[in-house]
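Thread: Newbie trying to understand structure tokens

Hi all, I'm a second-year student working on a class project, and my supervisor (Dr. K.) asked me to get a predicted structure for one chain before our next meeting. I've only ever worked with sequences, so writing a 3D structure as a token string is new to me. If someone could post the tokens and maybe explain what I'm looking at, I'd be very grateful. Here's the chain:
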Amino acid sequence: MEPHSATGFVRPPPEDERRNIQVLLVGASLELSSRDPAEIDACTDLLEPGTAVYISMPPGQTYHGTVALATRLRRAGFRPVPHVAARRIASRDALDEYLARAAGEAEVDSALVIGGDSDRPSGPFDSSRTLLETGLFQRHGVVHIGVAGYPEGHPKIAATALETALSAKKNLARRAGLDLQVVTQFCFESEPVLVWAAKMKGHGLPVRAGLSGPASLPRLLRFAALCGIGNSVRALKARPRAITRLLVEAGPEAVVRDIARPGGAPIAGVHFFCFGGLTRTARWLRAVREGRFELTPDGGFRVGAA
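---
Reply by user tm_fold:
Sure, no problem. This is what the structure looks like when written as tokens:
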């Protein structure tokens, strides 16, 4: 009898599975949630040159601080991808300055453009679409744009409204010459990601699946709250089995193994939310890249020491 995963599909031979996992994680991006620049230096020998490292904007961090981190990432040989949160931008001039400095000082050509979790906008922008409509991104050469995707839904926005907004951003990007992709909220189970990615296939947009990097559950929840990713935290708390798995595994292995299966929904890549553990995730990725992991009977895999 062929081995089956928890979701019921027939698994390929072990060596094929191992190769599929490694292929999926080629070009994986990571997210710097910590403000400690020493973490960047610690990763220079762990991550491949040119790895995309996203820079979150937790409460209290200004875009000046984000530009400084982006500059340090660029000097370390990585590709900085700063967050641009609509509701945190005070004015059009502030957006113009942010993008000008990011492009000029850190050679930024990519950004994750999001609405932000603030209830009230700080300025005239209330959504990622209104930021993109300014034309400032392409003016400064920031032409590779990620926007948020919600496989587990959004607590304040209906699914139909989310899909309508995504279609509008896709059409806007096409007219503006922007390269658009979708980066999902971080998820703890494979099924919501795979089902949602299959639905998104009709949009013709690359989907980068957001996953939590290896971390303890308390640390994961603490940084999730700090970064304003409340929806996924609520989704996690509604899934006791997912919490149990995280308490035991504290890693994304089972989800990665499911997503990597052939014939599944098209996933362009994986984005890891590191929650203050950039170095830990970088070590994990290097071990997988070098083949230092073993498949486990529970549907995941065990990563060797870095």
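A couple of things are worth pointing out once you decode it. The chain has one domain: 14-291. The two ends are 35 Å apart (CA to CA). Feel free to ask follow-ups in this thread.
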